[in-house]
Amino acid sequence: MSSSNNKTSPANKQPALRVIPLGGLHEIGKNTCVFEYGDELMLVDAGLAFPSDGMHGVNVVLPDTSYLRENQKRIRGMIVTHGHEDHIGGIPHHLKNFSIPVIYGPRLAMSMLQGKMEEAAVTDRTVIQTVSPRDVVKVGQHFQVEFIRNTHSIADSFSLAITTPVGVVIFTGDFKFDHTPVDGEYFDIQRMAHYGEQGVLCLFSDSTNAEVPGFTPPERSVFPNLDRHFANSEGRVIVTTFASSVHRVSMILELAMKHGRKVGLLGRSMLNVIAKARELGYIRCPDELFVPIKQIRDLPDRETLLLMTGSQGEPLAALSRISRGEHPQVQVKSTDTIIFSASPIPGNTISVVNTIDRLMMMGAKVVYGKGEGIHVSGHGCQEDHKLMLALTRPKFFVPVHGEHRMLVCHSRTAQSMGIPADNMLIIDNGDVVELTPTSIHKGDPVKAGIELLDASRNGIVDNRVLKERQQLAEDGVITLLTVISTDGVMGAPPRVNLRGVVTTADARRLSVWAEREIGWVLENRWNQLARNTGGTAPEVDWVGVQREIEVGLQRRLRRELQVEPLIICLVQPAPAGTPAYKGRADAEPDSRPAPRGGRRESSGREPVIRNHAPAPQRVQASGVVAATATTPVAVMTPVSAPAVEAAEAKREEPEMPANRVRRRRSTAAS
Exposed, middle or buried by CB within 10 Å (0-12, 13-18, 19+), for 13? Predict the structure, then answer.
């Protein structure tokens, strides 16, 4: 195996074919792959993934598409293998960032994608073209793609034979060998074997079930088990499955007709997919089979079937809401039979188990698990992989679409089929596979990672926001309000508010600590945060002031209390000349040394910064929220009131003798 990283083969100076997965490696989901030759790029699929438990407020996980945005002028088109969300779910979002000249794909997938694009208002960013089995399309000058029918858990699924200047690449997509498909559309084994006879340079193959021996059972094998549970149920039957598992949904509707049950649909995706599949002829059933959910409650339970989303325990899905007693139309009954006709995606197991527990506690009979025979995978197992390798007989092999252990198992299967270890690669997202007619090797990687979308599917949740949400979940939040004048004086006692923070320290102690941190920043950092510009006042970096206070208080809390809450400092600018807040009489002195370049004009508790002229300033947000002002005038009345009271008192009080000291009790202390 060649170890060169050059993009050009040293033997014939021919450019190498570069295959770059941006998602789908060392993970399940967000399958996205780039084929690159010369100055042309072709995309294969663009999916999404589900967030993990630690991704608070994240709704969708997408691959980082920085490489595509940087090279968008080179994109010639996209190929879609099938309509599952982990293959087409990211396309509408990507189209907001870059255009794709044309997208080719099967009818069902393109119908589902069209609706998603209309919702996202990006229909003008591409052209959709539907294809049929054995159709051949040309993408750019260097890629010719034939769509080869395969069998999967969704109708209208394809593998790809991609003819390139360096040879033919087979990209299997998701597949299994189902010899009794529900829709009668058989795997086109003959066409796959044809390419194997002609010669396949490299096989990129689905690895999801690489650890499982044997063949994956056919989809039809779940029919008799579902039939038995339907027949034995004396009350309502509630079934949850993947909305996009069109074959499974078709069998469930067939059983509903057989057992004389009317069907109520719950879940937006379930409604959309069934509508699209019926329109295209992949599901055949009469209109009168369906009853609106508001009316189906009037039917006898023995004649009712509810088909819904929620098989993965998604918090907002129909069955999850029902399990929490939050659904407005459906409540669980003790006579219900609830069937989970799906297996948990890795990472969703806890959510699914919790949903099952809640349903059982409500008294329902819940049918779930492999032992019930009510679900089979849509991905091939080890014997399916061997058959694919035998049909294609590739020179080189790259396992894709799976976690690392799956990729390793798949590579061992390939070795058992006679492919040398030197002729295969195990790669990660962002790795570049460079292929020539005689070699396969890794090139220089490109940027890869994840983009997190919030529930709106518009806002990107960056690492900083995700970390802040994690802090909120683990240690709570502390908000700190303080008044600081433009000449560097603390004009009022800080106000500290705790939410979700477990601590033995009382509010008074935290307020004292906050005073110390503010005082230290004003004494030691003000010179770096405020600068004279020759105007009426210095320019103050209020964002910097906020951050310095936040960091200092967080450090103290970590040291004193071993907690790390999210700290939000809100600084209210006050006019120059605002009387200085004297601080608490019992506050301990700050023993920290002043940093090099800093200065202390006062000792103890009273930082006073002088000789700065006031100037209008813009205040920006730090963290989650911050005060905003365009002039050096306090606009937050509750915060600035102590400073105003102090100023009024100073004007009204009589002159004190020189040898007397007046102590004024702070409003915060009282």
Answer: exposed
Contact of 572 with 493, CB cutoff 8 Å: no
Q: How far, in Å, CA of 396 to CA of 164, rounded?
A: 15
DSSP class per residue in 176-240: B--SS-TTS----HHHHHHHHHH-EEEEEEE-TTTTS-SPPPPGGGGHHHHHHHHHH-SS-EEEE
Tokens representing 540 are 């103050």
In this prediction, residues 179-196 reach a mean pLDDT of 95
The phi-psi region of residue 645 (left if phi > 0; otherwise alpha if psi is between -120 and 50; otherwise beta) is alpha
Q: What is the 3-state secondary structure (H, E, C) of 297-323?
A: CCCCHHHEEEEECCCCCCCCCHHHHHH
Residue position matching structure tokens 């905003």:
628
Helix (H) or strand (E) holding 147: strand 143-149
- Out of 334-338, 344-348, 519-523, least confident range: 344-348
DSSP label of 125? G
Write the burial class of residue 645 (CB in 10 Å: 0-12 exposed, 13-18 middle, 19+ buried). Answer: middle
Cα distance between residue 528 and residue 501, in whole Å: 32
Q: What confidence category does residue 541 fall into, taking pLDDT thresholds of 50, 70 and 90?
A: confident
Q: Are strands 103-106 and 75-79 parallel, antiparallel or unpaired?
A: parallel
What was the pLDDT predicted at 514? 85
Helix (H) or strand (E) holding 542: helix 542-561
Question: What average pLDDT is seen over the chain?
Answer: 83
Q: Give the closest residue to 278 by CA, choosing from 83, 128, 81, 108.
A: 108
Is residue 258 a contact partner of residue 97, using CB atoms and an 8 Å limit?
no
Strand partners of residue 25: 402
* pLDDT the model gives residue 90: 93
Q: What pLDDT is recorded for position 236?
A: 95
Q: How far apart are CA 521 and CA 297, in angstroms?
A: 65
Three-state secondary-structure class, residue 525: coil
For 33-42, the pLDDT digits (tens) are 999 999 999 9
- pLDDT of the residue at 73: 95
Res. 495: pLDDT tops 70: yes
